[in-house]
């Protein structure tokens, strides 16, 4: 079985590693995808004579008393007896929700996907007036009344327009098709039509529309598996066009470019559609539209003038074709196996608006615990308590910071999660306390498969309570194969499992219920294999005809399944204590909304340069999908990277929101202290760099937890009007900090080019070299020797750091700050810093510090620059932290008081044109040092002048002003 295969993997990555493509379906091996693509092919062939058979019965339009929504009956001329219902709503932020379902059908379609994804039922607009005309129903809204939604009756077509321009069109190509439920025996058979006849057939002919055969309607085979498909065909096809947008992004998770390449049309880059079907893909390809572990059915469409997006709330397998009929327009075709049509159209019009609209629907990312942004050291496996202690000791001896040590599956006796293998881990609580001694944490893996054995209380309790997923007959518990051998899976769709699961994580005894008393409140959790991965199942997962709570088949909820484990584990960890503390749970599988529950990583990557580069793009795509807390296994899961690759991989890691090194069980140990010089010292510095920048990361996480703006921002997000940046996915900005990173992902690099999107000065973070962009964009060359990650500070930014080397982040709590001020072309700069206790929820009660730093001219024409610090919370009380609006903020809250002695120890100003005459706080002259820069010449761009103000003696929590007099 697969478990054993992977254990046998060779230690080194063989020259050619390839995914076992035969384990996973292509579109042509999936009946409903085949049917969906067939529909699209017939539409193309029929060209302008193709007409969608779906129409709105205008006489049934019913506008709700709230006026923001209406319902109407929809018919298909192919099946006049089948009824469909349409429901269109406009939310108070302008998002349009379009739902369609079969009405009074033989069965019910699954309609729960949105309810798992949405954070709350959206508020409807109170300003909408639908007007019903002869051919359509329409509504105009928006501040300038320039957004319009038009629902055309015949054929049914939904269009969102902005400024009179079509932005999003549903069913504009006539590919809408909701396969209705039918009885097997009565299923109508069409006579196969001859090829020439097909083209001339009329709209009402089913074969013309659907194809002339019942293509695997009632049973489907793949390899040795047969899917019994008791409900028959129920797929959903929908075309979504963006007539004025030349780039689409999102729909993670795929190892592909950020601006999604085409899958159909002339010169299609891929021949397969993008697939969303959460899967454990062994040795996945670095460039492919194949499915991976998670699915976020969210797509942004972007042009210089506008950004729009859609969220297709479907939980079943979905294939998506992408085409560019012209460079400035995009057509997509979504084919899902089951479920209702439930599409949210986000009108933008800017990327920032889209993030706000999307996270209002599905929630903003939770503000993580501060330590979770430190360095995580993992491998499969640290094999004993003493191994963990030794690794910790080595980090300390080498002065390498680390916050978290991880345990993979071998800690668990026979892979019975929660149960320690006492031979190797005789003293788990003591071991954890040893790790926790200087504020470090442990993360331990808990997978969702339970070993089916009597001596496993977790399985026993789940079994007794009837909480396990059932086989196709709906009666027998499903049995499959995973790490623990013969296993059963908890059905988290069953609400009875929720409290039970949460109780397992309590560290104190819970009466007759089992709980994890062999753990501590600083033990955090890793949820792996939750696609779910089933080694002997079809496509390494669960049979689609398995049955979940409520009688839903696995096919209906497959892509949501993994998120439920993540959600419940996160709640369990949070409520282990009273009052609750911020949880940390890493998940491999995810869906829209998963950002509320913790972090994700990109699964089993390979120790190759291609995978390193792919990881950067995948993490960016996840940020686009609203799920910023993402990273890839540093070092690559499979293989033994050489020292150069490892260094570069750490440099990628420190600029990932989630930063963890991990390695397969068969790889050689590669903890950074094992490297020879100079690599060891380089990685030590790289790790320290991450720690010095924790204030930047934490501040960026505060922002995403409120606005949804991602922590990593690709160019189209940061500079939405700059077309030259729309396809860039190998460099990015960190939050609003002004830091621009271009990780090196190739062997032997000494230089790289970085694209600067604007007429602004950028400074090399390390060398202070000056690089000037241009209003039409410009590429500059940056030095990138092995010890150096190309990192620029955008002129106009102020970056707060903490630069005392420490062994873990909690030890930095009272460390002083350095402020790096990068003056812009106009001699101004701005930056932010957010701080709180980093692990409780007291910030929601106003216990935090949120500062703004400003550098500006003292007067318009003056050359003197004033640098000041002011309280930002007082200015933006409504949007302070973590999605919780604070009505009042008291600057002398307990947390702020506890930080009052924390100083700014250094202010470093890049770009001060001349040596100052004085640098003063009030009347007192401060200590400072000025290094004259080097002017630009034809040969080089020059080096910035740097003014260092030493220990100005100010607190990080208070208001102050320093004046630099020229
Ligand atoms: C698969 C995960 O992707 C990997 O990170 C982990 O080490 C193994 N499962 C073993 O738990």
Automatic annotation (TrEMBL):
Q: Which UniProt keywords apply?
A: Endoplasmic reticulum, Glycoprotein, Glycosidase, Hydrolase, Signal
InterPro entries tied to this protein: Gal_mutarotase_sf_dom (IPR011013), GH (IPR017853), Glyco_hydro_31_C (IPR048395), Glyco_hydro_31_N_dom (IPR025887), Glyco_hydro_31_TIM (IPR000322), Glyco_hydro_b (IPR013780)
Question: Can you say where in the cell this protein is located?
Answer: Endoplasmic reticulum
Name of one Pfam family that matches: Glyco_hydro_31_2nd
Q: Which residues form the Glycoside hydrolase family 31 TIM barrel domain?
A: 365-700
Domain Glycosyl hydrolase family 31 C-terminal span(s) in chain numbering: 708-799
The transmembrane residues are: none
The entry's cellular-component GO terms read: glucosidase II complex
The signal sequence is: 1-18
Q: Which GO terms describe its molecular function?
A: alpha-glucosidase activity; carbohydrate binding
Where it mainly occurs, coarsely classed, is: endoplasmic reticulum
Which pathway does this chain act in? Glycan metabolism; N-glycan metabolism
| Domain Glycoside hydrolase family 31 N-terminal as annotated: residue spans | 86-321
Name the domain of life.
Eukaryota
Q: Which CDD domains match?
A: GH31_GANC_GANAB_alpha, GH31_N
In the record, the note on similarity to other proteins reads: Belongs to the glycosyl hydrolase 31 family.
Protein name (database record): Glucosidase II subunit alpha
Originating organism = Fibroporia radiculosa
């Amino acid at each position: 079985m697969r478990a054993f295969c992977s254990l046998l993997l060779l230690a080194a990555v063989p020259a050619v590693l390839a995914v076992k493509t035969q384990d996973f379906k292509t579109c042509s091996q999936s009946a409903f995808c085949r049917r969906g693509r067939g529909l699209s092919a017939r539409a193309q062939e029929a060209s302008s004579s193709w007409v969608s058979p779906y129409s709105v019965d205008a006489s049934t339009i019913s506008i709700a008393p709230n006026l923001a929504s209406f319902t109407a009956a929809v018919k298909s001329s192919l099946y006049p007896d089948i009824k469909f219902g349409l429901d269109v709503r406009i939310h108070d932020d302008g998002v349009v929700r379009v739902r369609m379902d079969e009405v009074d059908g033989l069965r019910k379609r699954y309609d729960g996907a949105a309810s798992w994804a949405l954070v709350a039922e959206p508020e409807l607009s109170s300003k909408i007036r639908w007007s019903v005309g002869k051919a359509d129903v329409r509504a105009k809204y928006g501040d300038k009344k320039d957004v319009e939604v038009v629902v055309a009756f015949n054929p049914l077509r939904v269009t969102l327009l902005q400024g009179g321009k079509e932005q999003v069109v549903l069913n504009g190509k006539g590919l809408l098709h909701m396969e209705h439920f039918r009885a097997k025996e009565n299923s109508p058979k069409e006579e196969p039509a001859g090829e020439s006849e097909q083209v001339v057939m009329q709209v009402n002919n089913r074969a013309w529309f659907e194809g002339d055969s019942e293509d695997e309607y009632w049973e489907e085979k793949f390899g040795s598996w047969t899917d019994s498909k008791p409900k028959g065909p129920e797929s959903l096809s929908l075309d979504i066009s963006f007539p004025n947008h030349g780039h689409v992004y999102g729909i993670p998770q795929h190892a592909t470019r950020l601006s999604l390449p085409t899958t159909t049309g002339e010169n299609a880059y891929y021949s397969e559609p993008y697939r969303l079907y959460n899967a454990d893909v062994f040795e996945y390809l670095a460039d492919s539209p194949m499915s991976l572990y998670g699915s976020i059915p969210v797509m942004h469409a972007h042009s210089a003038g506008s950004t729009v997006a859609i969220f297709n709330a479907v939980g079943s397998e979905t294939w998506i074709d992408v085409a560019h009929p012209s460079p400035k327009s995009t057509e997509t075709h979504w084919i899902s196996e089951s479920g209702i049509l439930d599409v949210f159209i986000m009108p933008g019009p800017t990327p920032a608006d889209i993030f706000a609209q999307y996270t209002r629907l599905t929630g903003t990312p939770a503000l993580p615990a501060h330590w979770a942004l430190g360095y995580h050291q993992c491998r499969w496996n640290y094999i004993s308590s003493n191994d963990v202690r030794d690794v910790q000791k080595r980090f300390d001896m080498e002065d390498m910071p680390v916050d978290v040590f991880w345990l993979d599956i071998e800690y668990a006796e026979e892979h019975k999660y929660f149960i320690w293998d006492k031979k190797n881990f005789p003293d788990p609580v003591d071991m954890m306390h040893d790790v926790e001694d200087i504020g470090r944490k442990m993360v331990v893996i808990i997978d969702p498969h339970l070993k089916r054995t009597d001596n496993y209380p977790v399985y026993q309790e789940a079994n007794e309570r009837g909480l396990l997923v059932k086989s196709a007959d709906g009666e027998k518990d499903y049995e499959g194969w995973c790490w623990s051998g013969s296993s059963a899976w908890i059905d988290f769709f069953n609400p009875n499992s929720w409290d039970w699961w949460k109780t397992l994580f309590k560290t104190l005894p819970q009466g007759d219920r089992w709980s994890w008393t062999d753990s501590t409140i600083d033990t955090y959790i890793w949820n792996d294999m939750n696609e779910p991965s089933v080694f002997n199942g079809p496509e390494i997962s669960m049979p689609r005809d398995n049955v979940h709570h409520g009688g839903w088949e696995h096919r209906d909820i497959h892509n949501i399944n993994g998120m439920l484990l993540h959600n419940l584990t996160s709640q369990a960890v949070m409520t282990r204590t009273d009052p609750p503390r911020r949880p940390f749970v890493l998940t491999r599988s995810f869906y829209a909304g998963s950002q509320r529950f913790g972090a994700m990583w990109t699964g089993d990557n390979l120790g190759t340069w291609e995978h390193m580069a792919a990881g950067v793009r995948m993490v960016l795509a996840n940020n686009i999908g609203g799920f910023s807390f993402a990273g890839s296994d540093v070092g690559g899961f499979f293989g033994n990277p050489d020292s150069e690759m490892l260094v570069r991989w750490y440099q990628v890691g420190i600029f990932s929101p989630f930063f963890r090194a991990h390695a397969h069980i068969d790889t050689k140990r590669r903890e950074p202290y094992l490297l020879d010089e100079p690599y060891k010292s380089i990685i030590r510095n790289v790790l320290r760099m991450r720690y010095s920048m924790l204030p930047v990361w934490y501040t960026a996480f505060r922002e995403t937890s409120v606005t949804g703006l991602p922590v990593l921002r690709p160019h189209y997000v940061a500079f939405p009007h700059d077309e030259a940046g729309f396809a860039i996915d190998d460099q990015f900005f960190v939050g609003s900090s002004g830091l621009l990173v271009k990780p090196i992902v190739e062997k032997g690099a000494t230089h790289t080019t970085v694209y600067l999107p604007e007429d602004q000065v950028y400074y090399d973070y390390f060398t202070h070299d000056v690089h000037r962009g241009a209003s039409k964009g410009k590429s500059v060359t940056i030095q990138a020797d092995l010890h150096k990650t190309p990192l620029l500070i955008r002129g106009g930014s102020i970056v707060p750091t903490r630069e005392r080397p420490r062994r873990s982040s909690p030890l930095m709590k009272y460390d002083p700050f350095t402020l790096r001020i990068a003056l812009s072309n106009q001699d101004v700069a701005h930056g932010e810093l957010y701080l709180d206790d980093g692990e409780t929820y007291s910030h929601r009660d106003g216990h935090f510090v949120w500062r703004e730093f400003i550098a500006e001219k003292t007067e318009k024409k003056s050359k003197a620059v004033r640098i000041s610090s002011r309280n930002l919370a007082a200015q933006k009380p409504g949007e302070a932290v973590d999605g919780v609006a604070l009505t009042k903020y008291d600057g002398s809250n307990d947390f702020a008081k506890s930080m009052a002695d924390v100083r700014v120890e250094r202010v470093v100003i890049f770009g001060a044109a001349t040596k100052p005459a004085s640098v003063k706080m009030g009347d007192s002259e401060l200590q400072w040092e000025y290094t004259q820069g080097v002017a630009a010449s034809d040969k080089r761009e020059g080096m910035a002048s740097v003014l260092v103000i030493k220990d100005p003696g100010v607190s990080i929590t208070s208001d102050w002003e320093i004046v630099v007099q020229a």
